[in-house]
From TrEMBL:
<comment type="function">
    <text>Has antibacterial activity against a variety of bacteria including S.aureus, P.aeruginosa and M.tuberculosis. Acts by inducing bacterial membrane breakage.</text>
</comment>
<feature type="transmembrane region" description="Helical">
    <location>
        <begin position="23"/>
        <end position="43"/>
    </location>
</feature>
<protein>
    <recommendedName>
        <fullName>Reactive oxygen species modulator 1</fullName>
    </recommendedName>
</protein>
<keyword id="KW-1133">Transmembrane helix</keyword>
<comment type="function">
    <text>Induces production of reactive oxygen species (ROS) which are necessary for cell proliferation. May play a role in inducing oxidative DNA damage and replicative senescence. May play a role in the coordination of mitochondrial morphology and cell proliferation.</text>
</comment>
<keyword id="KW-0472">Membrane</keyword>
<comment type="similarity">
    <text>Belongs to the MGR2 family.</text>
</comment>
<dbReference type="GO" id="GO:0005744">
    <property type="term" value="C:TIM23 mitochondrial import inner membrane translocase complex"/>
</dbReference>
<dbReference type="GO" id="GO:0030150">
    <property type="term" value="P:protein import into mitochondrial matrix"/>
</dbReference>
<dbReference type="GO" id="GO:0045039">
    <property type="term" value="P:protein insertion into mitochondrial inner membrane"/>
</dbReference>
<dbReference type="InterPro" id="IPR018450">
    <property type="entry name" value="Romo1/Mgr2"/>
</dbReference>
<keyword id="KW-0812">Transmembrane</keyword>
<dbReference type="Pfam" id="PF10247">
    <property type="entry name" value="Romo1"/>
</dbReference>
Amino acid sequence: MPVAVGPYGQSQPSCFDRVKMGFMMGFAVGMAAGAMFGTFSCLRIGMRGRELMGGVGKTMLQSGGTFGTFMSIGMGIRC
């Protein structure tokens, strides 16, 4: 199957590259949302110091991983 070539000679990214890009974009957005929501929820229940940083970091990784997974699934469906 021939590779599609763009107007300036560059080739299109492969399906795996698109899935990786979707995961990275989703992970970045999820980390930002996790930072906001995690900070608010940890401060609300009274965490301070090291406990606060651990709670916010855990929330950021969880939301980043979740959103990145769904974005990569969506990009996989598109290609």
